[in-house]
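Reopening this ticket.

The earlier resolution said the output was attached, but the attachment link was broken on my side. Pasting everything inline this time so it's all in one place.
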Amino acid sequence: MNRPETRPARIAIVTVSDRASRGEYEDRGGPAAEEWLRRAVTSEMEITRHILPDGREGLAATLRKLADGDGADLILITGGTGPAERDQTPEALAEVLEKELPGFGEEMRRASLAEGVPTAILSRQTAGIRDACLMITIPGKPAAIATCLNAVFAAVPYCLDLIGAARIETDEAVIKAFRPKA
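Inline output:
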């Protein structure tokens, strides 16, 4: 499905956390991701935030609804990428993706390791596309979110172009989008 470039980009941020979904813990990941996007993206965008409990089926259903029903161009998913039993975000994502883009996860882990976070190797972050929607898993900690988005976001605008999603522009002082010269 090709989407028009003239409308605002639709971006969804999904926090995956049992405790946050029950109100026992303040979601800091979703707000941090939104704050980063509002600093980095200069084009018009509509951002929605969602909080779900850990688990494969509920997240997969939500991702399908956001991509297929709501027409999201970009979905950032925070949380649920570790090795714990309830961490099933990558499995849910695998159910809905048409193509995986493993380079995103590789680069996010590399950036976190470079900042001296040895547990970055435990992260199962990844990304992929479903129709004209790019989905990226990111950590839940605000500092780690910034590290990871700084590491990969330069490629996001061009990826959105390639899959027919809404066009986004970035503030080069925050992150310079890479688009090959024609």
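Reporter confirms the inline version is readable. The chain has a mean pLDDT of 94. The helical segments are 18-21, 29-40, 56-69, 89-96, 103-114, 142-152, 156-163.
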